[in-house]
């Protein structure tokens, strides 16, 4: 055993020395490169590698210290601290260098841009006289813009790459500027920025398709005239010349018939299919993007959907008539995990109703639904319908979509069921097993059509411009129902923003109130496609809300056409980054509104552009309704279930000891007065005003005395249990335990007693859970044969309360003498009735252990790992270890 320990110690020493040498080499290289003004990205990568190796070395150091004796430990800790401070100094050197580079780049960019806009020539910048038209992200205009920029700037040899980059940025705006906004202005970044810009907007295939579709959509002239013919000719030649410039001259046969039909075919296909085609071409670069490949791709997609559909016995007609895709269903509902039955894609023919001859299913026919059950039976018999699915062409026993009863019989359709439809009984059995099934649901309207109506939220895209020069495009939701504005913490951290903290109370549904301390940041918002901007203050939170659906359906509304929207709605759903409340709502929203009636969406003008909100036009759809069927497990299943629930104990990851504001405040305020630890109560807000509830405490005291007056023995015990110590009032009552031989009477102080709608515990933070898992403690306890157990006597009363908080822990006492005025006392120690008492006790215990870690390492570690409330249990292999 001793030889193995020595070997382990030597291996640990070698590993630690190797890692220290690697970190020292990296620190030297970082210091040298910062002095030589090397590119910041390369130095940043070296700092990241240094931190990674240092973290591994730090873990080894902890293990190494446990193997050292007391004589060598102090020397080793001193050496490690010197090494640690060297790493900290290197990080600080890099941070100073980074801030210097950012500041220098920012100043140089501003000076060059200002000089360029004023027509001056800073340094040796020689720009042609003519003015370029800024490019805003329109793919159709990129070719002309790039040709001009290439001739005037890009191809010139007397300009360096930094000067070209400055000219490029100054001639971009909107989405085009966003594409390269992440590149800092350096010579090496200029070619990358040009490459990124051309990959995004130099799309010859899309431009060719656009011209073909525009030619196909030219309307026939009804009244020929010279002026009209001239306009028509000019429009045709505009597209022909553009195609000729791209090497696709339709006059000389360079534009093939296959290319024309490819554009027209893609226009006729659903957008979801076109998206899949684009993804397919991107991932299969060897496949040509021609008509033959596209038709083959469409055929395979149809085969896939037919196979999926026929597994449910549903007739497939065409991809175009598929009323609801899986993507649409998931974007309109709450995201979740679906079974195979819920993933089937349902398609429906556009057939005429056999009863009224309108285009809908008979199950949605108002004439059929308006009849009673007997009349529906007569209609079904007359029309020769299946009694199970109400379709024509087969009998009930031959129906492929029918359901079977427990006895094997085919069920009839719900509309033909003579039982009371409204009799909906709920299963009162506990849910032991949940199965999800997929049902078709039609929403009935007055005209008998199946429809669905959805609402659009006020969503816009904007750009946050930070003072440090960083920018980020975010998705905003305008919410006039929120009093304050909120921003996601991830956005704030990515921009390097900071600000003061403030205490707030967040109120939500079901009267839920949450007291939080949040950071407030100042944001400058700017439109993505406009120069309008404003400054708002927002509170930083980890999460805002779930994903919001985007479905404006612009093509359905004439009054919305031609508007410059604040969002182009290129995504099925969007993650909200910024919520703008009523505090800044009218800084964003302008006075102009476009509205037809309440059944159609409304357009509201904002500084970012127009936003669409309100109702969307109904569409003919079939919806998938996910229902839960409750099944009760048998006894054997319950036994197995309980077994695995027990086995799962202790396997879940916990993050109980995560540092938060309450714990940080405790660490800053706790102190040792030479005898005991002194703590302050963790108030939710420093400005809290506690009411004087003397009347309530006196009334509760009288009720308690009246109850005890009938039992003189218990009254005596209550009087003797009183806690001495003179000086909100805490109402109290006595709890008796006849099974106890000592301390049968305990006095319980009630900090949850309401007075005028408030209670003391509402003003106090309960603190994070610091308790260890009892299962982990018991498993460790059973490792060795010698057990050790101890507990802390009156744990809460060992902690002294700060004098500032004693007045909120007063109570009344008068030794069962009802004629005498109650005396006022106040606690000097932490009271058990406070909701923060368990947190304060555990926090003091852990603080005490950590403070004495260096002197009593093993004991302190046992206290932190093996304490459960006021009890500690551990085990040892030998008696000598237990005694020590």
UniProtKB/TrEMBL annotation:
The superkingdom of the source organism is Eukaryota
Which GO terms label this protein's molecular function in UniProt?
nucleic acid binding; zinc ion binding
A Pfam family hit: Asp_protease_2
Q: What residue ranges are annotated as transmembrane?
A: none
Residue ranges of the CCHC-type domain?
Answer: 386-400
Coiled coil ranges:
2-29, 687-721
Alphabetically list the UniProt keywords.
Answer: Coiled coil, Metal-binding, Zinc, Zinc-finger
* InterPro entries membership: DNA/RNA_pol_sf, DUF1759, Peptidase_aspartic_dom_sf, Rev_trsase/Diguanyl_cyclase, RT_dom, Znf_CCHC
- PANTHER family cross-referenced by the UniProt entry: GAG-LIKE PROTEIN, PHD-TYPE DOMAIN-CONTAINING PROTEIN
| Protein name, entry field | CCHC-type domain-containing protein
């Amino acid at each position: 055993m001793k030889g193995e320990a020595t070997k382990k110690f030597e291996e640990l020493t070698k590993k630690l020395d190797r890692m220290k040498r690697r970190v020292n080499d990296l620190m030297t290289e970082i210091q040298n490169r910062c002095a030589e003004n090397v590119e910041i990205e390369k130095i940043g990568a070296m700092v990241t590698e240094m931190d990674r190796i240092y973290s591994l070395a730090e873990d080894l150091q902890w293990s190494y210290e446990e193997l050292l004796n007391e004589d060598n430990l102090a020397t080793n800790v001193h050496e490690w601290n010197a090494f640690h401070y060297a790493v900290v100094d290197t990080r600080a050197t890099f941070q100073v260098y980074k801030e210097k580079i950012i500041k220098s780049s920012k100043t140089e960019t501003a000076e060059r841009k200002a000089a360029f806009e004023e027509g001056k020539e800073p340094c040796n910048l020689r720009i042609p006289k003519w003015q370029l038209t800024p490019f805003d992200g329109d793919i159709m205009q990129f070719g002309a813009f790039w040709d001009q920029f290439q001739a005037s700037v890009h191809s010139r040899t007397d300009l360096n790459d930094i000067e070209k980059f400055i000219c490029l940025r100054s001639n971009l705006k909107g989405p085009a500027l966003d594409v390269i906004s992440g590149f800092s202005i350096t010579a090496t970044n200029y070619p990358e920025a040009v490459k990124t810009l051309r990959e995004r907007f130099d799309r010859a295939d899309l431009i060719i398709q656009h011209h073909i579709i525009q030619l196909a959509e030219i309307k026939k002239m009804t009244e020929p005239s010279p002026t009209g013919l001239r306009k028509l000719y000019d429009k045709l030649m505009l597209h022909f010349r553009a195609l000729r410039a791209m090497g696709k001259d339709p006059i000389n046969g360079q534009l093939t018939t296959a290319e024309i039909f490819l554009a027209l075919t893609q226009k006729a296909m659903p957008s979801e299919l076109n998206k899949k085609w684009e993804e397919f071409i991107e991932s299969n670069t060897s496949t040509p993007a021609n008509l033959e490949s596209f038709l083959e791709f469409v055929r395979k997609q149809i085969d896939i959907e037919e196979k999926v559909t026929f597994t449910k016995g549903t007739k497939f007609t065409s991809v175009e008539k598929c009323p609801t895709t899986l993507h649409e269903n998931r974007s309109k509902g709450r995201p979740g995990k679906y079974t195979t039955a819920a993933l089937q894609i349902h398609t429906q023919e556009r057939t005429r109703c056999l009863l009224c001859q309108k285009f809908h299913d008979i199950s949605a026919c108002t004439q059929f639904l308006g009849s009673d059950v007997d009349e529906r039976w007569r209609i079904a018999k007359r029309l020769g319908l299946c009694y199970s699915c109400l379709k024509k062409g087969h009998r009930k026993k031959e129906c492929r979509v029918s359901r079977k009863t427990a006895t094997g019989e085919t069920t009839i359709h719900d509309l033909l069921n003579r039982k009371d439809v409204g009799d909906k009984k709920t299963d009162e059995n506990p849910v032991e097993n949940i199965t999800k099934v997929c049902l078709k649901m039609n929403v009935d309207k007055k005209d008998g059509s199946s429809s669905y109506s959805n609402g659009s939220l006020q969503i816009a895209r904007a750009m946050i411009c930070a003072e440090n020069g960083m920018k980020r495009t975010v998705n905003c939701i305008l919410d006039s129902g929120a009093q304050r504005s909120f921003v996601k913490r991830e956005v704030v951290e990515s921009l390097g923003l900071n600000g003061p903290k403030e205490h707030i109370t967040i109120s939500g549904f079901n009267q839920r109130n949450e007291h939080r301390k949040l950071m407030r940041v100042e944001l400058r918002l700017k439109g993505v496609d406009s120069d309008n901007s404003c400054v708002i203050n927002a509170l930083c939170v980890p999460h805002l809300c779930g994903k919001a659906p985007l479905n404006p359906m612009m093509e359905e509304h004439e009054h919305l056409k031609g508007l410059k929207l604040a969002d182009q709605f290129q995504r099925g759903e969007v993650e909200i980054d910024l919520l703008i409340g009523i505090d800044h709502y009218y800084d964003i929203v302008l006075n102009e509104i476009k509205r037809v009636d309440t059944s159609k969406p409304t357009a509201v003008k904002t500084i970012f552009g127009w936003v669409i909100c309100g109702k969307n036009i109904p569409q003919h759809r079939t919806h998938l309704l996910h229902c839960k069927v409750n099944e009760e497990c048998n006894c054997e299943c319950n036994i197995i279930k309980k077994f695995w629930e027990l086995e799962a104990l202790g396997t879940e990851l916990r993050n109980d000891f995560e540092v938060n504001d309450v714990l940080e405040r405790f660490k800053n305020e706790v102190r040792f007065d030479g005898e005991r630890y002194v703590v302050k109560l963790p108030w939710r807000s420093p400005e809290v005003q506690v009411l004087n509830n003397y009347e309530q405490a006196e009334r509760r005291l009288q009720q308690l005395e009246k109850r005890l007056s009938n039992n003189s023995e218990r009254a005596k015990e209550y009087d003797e249990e009183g806690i001495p110590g003179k000086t909100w009032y805490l109402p109290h009552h006595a709890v008796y335990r006849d099974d106890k031989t000592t301390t049968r009477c305990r006095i319980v102080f009630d900090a949850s007693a309401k007075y005028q709608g408030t209670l003391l515990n509402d003003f106090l933070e309960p603190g994070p859970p610091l308790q260890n898992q009892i299962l982990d403690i018991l498993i460790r306890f059973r490792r060795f044969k010698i057990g050790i157990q101890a507990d802390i006597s009156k744990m809460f009363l060992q902690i002294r309360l700060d004098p500032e908080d004693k007045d909120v822990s007063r109570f009344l006492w008068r030794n069962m003498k009802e004629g005498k005025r109650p005396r006022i006392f106040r606690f000097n120690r932490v009271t058990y009735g406070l909701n923060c008492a368990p947190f304060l006790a555990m926090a003091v215990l852990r603080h005490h252990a950590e403070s004495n870690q260096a002197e009593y390492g093993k004991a302190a570690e046992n206290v932190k790992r093996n304490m459960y409330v006021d009890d500690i249990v551990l085990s040892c292999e030998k008696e000598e270890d237990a005694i020590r």
